[in-house]
């Protein structure tokens, strides 16, 4: 009987020790596939550096151009290259270096060569993206070569405006349609030019372009930004893209920052909320919009959504909700990313394929850079 009691006592003691050991802070449970927010630490500046480093896998040094993918050596074309410059500026603003400046300069050399030794392009929206990136590069480096490119592009972009369909800038030079991609980046550009150089004509361009867009390609009741209207006046009320939401809220924010007019801020918030609460979000994560051009769409939204968080004079409730949303996206992206090499998929909730397109990779890098900025500002 005593022997039995002793055995039972030993078993009980071992059980208690086992229970105590499982609760030790230095012996946490294995991470789940979907770790809850706050369950791990993210060093976003380091993550952004790793993401930036992945761009070298898409670079063709012999031609000074960026490829479609690591396995497809064709030039990625004009507008993704413009976004590479924008992303390199992000890195330069965090850690200025001669090496990054050289990469920016080489990109411009390669783009000029691949585009037939001219900065002018058939697509107005493509030129707007290069102009926006060139303005940021000029701001960051002070190098007048970027200002020269900017001036050439802005002069040609303004030629895309016509009174057809009540105003607006054509998508491309065959005048088939006018769309959000050709108008909202132009409004952002015009507003930023005004803030930089204080030319009243630039502000008027921003207002006129924005007013046309809001009257023609915007559903105020929902915050949905339509994509395009063709030359016959038929609107596309089917397509929904994060790209359109992002550029519209970006233009509204720029005008709010200049004028203080609360209507612009309300427009920006409505476009953001439509993105977060509608069909462009799945389970709290920006939806998969495919590869090709669509691979870049989420990155464009993230870039201007981040500006709304930082510069938007939002209520604390709204700001906290927006930060929580972008934080969830950033953590999901990095949790699912390939780490060697660093790759991001079109669906941020899934692991990427063995090879991804540059457009898709750029969206992931933009989100990492956004997270690094929010961390620097102590907003995360």
Key terms:
13 helices, mainly alpha, two-stranded antiparallel sheet, disordered N terminus, 380 residues, globular, 6% strand, 10 strands
Can you tell me about this structure?
- The termini are far apart.
- Mean pLDDT is 92; it is low at 1-35.
- The strands form 5 sheets. This protein has a two-stranded antiparallel ribbon. It has a two-stranded antiparallel ribbon with strand order 3-6.
- It is mainly alpha-helical and 380 residues long.
- A hairpin with a 4-residue loop joins strand 4 and strand 5 (224-225).
- 45% of the residues are buried.
- It contains 13 helices and 10 strands.
Measured between the Cα atoms of the first and last residue, the distance is 62 Å
Helix content: 55-70%
Q: Structural class, judged by helices and strands?
A: mainly alpha
Compute the number of strand runs.
10
Largest sheet: 2 strands, antiparallel
**Oligomeric description of these chains:** single chain
Set out the fold topology.
Layout: H1 2-22, H2 44-53, E1 59-60, E2 65-66, H3 78-94, H4 98-114, H5 124-141, H6 144-158, E3 177-179, H7 180-197, H8 200-216, E4 218-219, E5 224-225, E6 228-230, H9 242-259, H10 262-277, E7 281-282, E8 285-286, H11 297-311, H12 316-336, E9 338-339, E10 342-343, H13 358-376
Antiparallel strand pairs: 1-2, 3-6, 4-5, 7-8, 9-10
Helix pairs in contact: 2-3, 2-13, 3-4, 3-5, 3-13, 5-6, 5-7, 7-8, 7-9, 8-9, 9-10, 9-11, 11-13, 12-13
């Amino acid at each position: 009987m005593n022997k039995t009691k002793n055995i039972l006592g030993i078993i009980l003691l071992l059980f208690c020790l086992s229970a105590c050991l499982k609760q030790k802070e230095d012996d946490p449970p294995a991470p789940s596939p979907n770790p809850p927010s706050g369950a791990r630490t993210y060093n976003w500046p380091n993550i952004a550096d790793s993401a930036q480093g992945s761009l070298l896998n898409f670079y063709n040094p012999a031609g000074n151009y960026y490829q479609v993918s690591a396995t497809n050596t064709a030039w990625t074309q004009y507008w993704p290259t413009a976004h590479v410059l924008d992303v390199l500026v992000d890195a330069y603003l965090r850690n200025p270096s001669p090496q990054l400046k050289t990469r920016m300069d080489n990109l411009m050399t390669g783009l000029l060569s691949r585009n037939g030794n001219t900065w002018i392009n058939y697509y107005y929206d493509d030129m707007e993206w290069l102009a926006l990136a060139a303005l940021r590069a000029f701001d960051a480096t002070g190098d007048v070569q970027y200002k020269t490119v900017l001036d050439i592009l802005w002069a040609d972009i303004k030629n895309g405006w016509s009174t057809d369909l009540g105003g607006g800038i054509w998508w491309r030079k065959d005048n088939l349609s006018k769309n959000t991609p050709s108008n909202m980046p132009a409004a952002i550009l015009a507003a930023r030019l005004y803030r930089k150089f204080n030319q009243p004509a630039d502000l008027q361009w921003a207002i006129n372009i924005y007013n046309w867009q809001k009257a023609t390609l915007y559903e105020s009741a929902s915050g949905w930004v339509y994509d395009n209207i063709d030359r016959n006046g038929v609107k596309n009320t089917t397509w929904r893209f994060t790209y359109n939401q992002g550029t519209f809220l970006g233009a509204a924010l720029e005008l709010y920052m200049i004028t203080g007019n609360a209507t612009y801020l309300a427009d920006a918030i409505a476009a953001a909320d439509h993105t977060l609460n509608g069909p462009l979000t799945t389970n709290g994560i920006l939806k998969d919009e495919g590869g090709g051009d669509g691979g870049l769409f989420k990155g464009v939204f993230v870039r201007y959504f981040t500006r709304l968080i930082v510069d938007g004079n939002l209520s604390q409730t709204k700001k906290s909700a927006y930060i929580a949303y972008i934080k969830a996206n950033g953590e999901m992206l990095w949790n699912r990313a390939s780490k060697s090499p660093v790759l991001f998929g079109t669906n941020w909730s899934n692991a990427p394929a063995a090879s991804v397109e540059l457009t898709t990779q750029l969206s992931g890098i933009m989100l990492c850079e956004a997270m690094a900025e929010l961390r620097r500002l102590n907003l995360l």
